[in-house]
């Protein structure tokens, strides 16, 4: 099963990426806008990409050496 991790911002990303790189296994990373009030990314392109990424990751569901790091980059500046 793909191992999934969620982090917020650059500091958490830097910490987690060092940990995952040390494993020397397959790593996918997605950067996305943080969720809005409805629980969806404020980024329209990210909203389109998320189900596609989930579909691709489904192909690796039986592979224990695949990791997916989802990075929430923050709120949309007004």
Automatic annotation (TrEMBL):
This is Thioredoxin domain-containing protein 17. Residues 7-77 form the Thioredoxin domain. PANTHER family: 42-9-9 PROTEIN-RELATED (PTHR12452), THIOREDOXIN DOMAIN-CONTAINING PROTEIN 17 (PTHR12452:SF0). SUPFAM superfamilies: Thioredoxin-like. GO terms for molecular function: protein-disulfide reductase [NAD(P)H] activity. GO terms for cellular component: cytosol. Belongs to the thioredoxin family. Transmembrane segments: none annotated. InterPro entries: Thioredoxin-like_sf (IPR036249), TXNDC17-like (IPR045108), TXNDC17_dom (IPR010357). It comes from Laodelphax striatellus.
């Amino acid at each position: 099963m793909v191992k999934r991790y969620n982090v917020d911002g650059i500091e958490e990303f830097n910490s987690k990426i060092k940990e995952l790189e040390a494993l020397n296994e397959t790593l996918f990373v997605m950067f996305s806008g943080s969720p809005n009030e409805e629980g969806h990314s404020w980024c329209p392109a990210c909203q389109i990409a998320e189900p596609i990424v989930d579909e691709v990751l489904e192909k690796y569901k039986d592979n224990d050496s695949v990791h997916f790091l989802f990075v929430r980059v923050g709120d949309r500046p007004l």
